[in-house]
Design brief:
Elements: H1 5-8, H2 25-33, E1 43-47, H3 54-67, E2 72-76, E3 91-95, H4 102-119, E4 122-127, H5 138-146, E5 148-151, H6 157-170, H7 177-186, H8 191-208, H9 214-220
Parallel strand pairs: 1-4, 1-5, 2-3, 3-4
Helix pairs in contact: 4-5, 6-8
């Protein structure tokens, strides 16, 4: 089925360059700065709603570190353990800390945090809410709040449409207003899904040699409602 195109399109690597900044300019600046050993603050906690871009930023942080030749890991909180952080690793990105299961996992993050502090490392962690609102052990919540804490602000609909238009321009075609509007009405509002749909639309248009139109979009968009 044409809708399978959405599943077959490989995800675009998450980088600082392709993150749509919106109201998060200061946060992105601080994340970039935290990659420098001499940075004033290298411990950053970010929180926000699903789809706001937290995971993108953590992946971008770890990817940029590796590009700079620094050992870095990007991990999820489910099943987290100290052993997942190699001895030579000084940069850790940990997603969804509210998913830390039980005292053992929370103690592991507490220990990793302290170890990185002692060794001059960096930790970027994310969660669904501010540290004190996650129900974590008090000592861990306190540690996560010691550094910089930022809310990741999701994009407005207008900013999302600008991001979609920008991705289309990267492929060499203008995104028709009616296609963008239909996509915003009928697709999941998560930006990564919307951008993936533009990638799939580009591929399907080239394969079928058909122009970018709403009918073409309907053929690949899962469960698209009728107007």
């Amino acid at each position: 089925m044409k809708q399978l195109l959405l599943e077959l399109i490989p995800p675009v690597p998450s980088t600082f360059e392709n993150f749509v900044v919106g109201r998060n300019r200061e946060l992105v600046h601080q994340l970039r700065a935290a990659l420098e050993p001499s940075a004033a603050e290298r411990f950053i906690y970010v929180w926000g709603a699903p789809g706001s871009g937290k995971s993108h930023l953590l992946e971008a942080f770890a990817a940029r570190a590796r590009t700079l030749g620094q050992a870095a890991v990007r991990l999820g909180a489910v099943g987290f353990d100290e052993a997942q952080v190699p001895d030579d690793c000084l940069l850790v990105a940990l997603d969804d800390v509210e998913s830390l299961a039980g005292d053992a996992a929370q103690t592991a993050l507490f220990n990793v945090y302290n170890d990185l502090r002692e060794r001059g490392g960096a930790l970027v962690a994310s969660g669904a809410a501010a540290p004190g609102q996650l129900g974590l052990r008090p000592e861990l919540a306190t540690r996560l709040g010691w550094g910089l804490v930022y809310q990741v602000h999701g994009l407005t609909d207008e900013e999302k449409m600008e991001a979609l238009a920008g991705r289309a321009r990267e492929h060499g075609w203008p995104l028709p207003n009616e296609v963008a509007a239909y996509l915003m009405r009928h697709a999941a509002r998560d930006l990564s899904f919307l951008l993936g749909t533009v990638e799939a639309l580009d591929r399907y248009s080239r394969e079928t040699k058909r122009p970018i139109t709403v009918p073409l979009l309907r053929e690949i968009l899962p469960s698209a409602a009728e107007d």
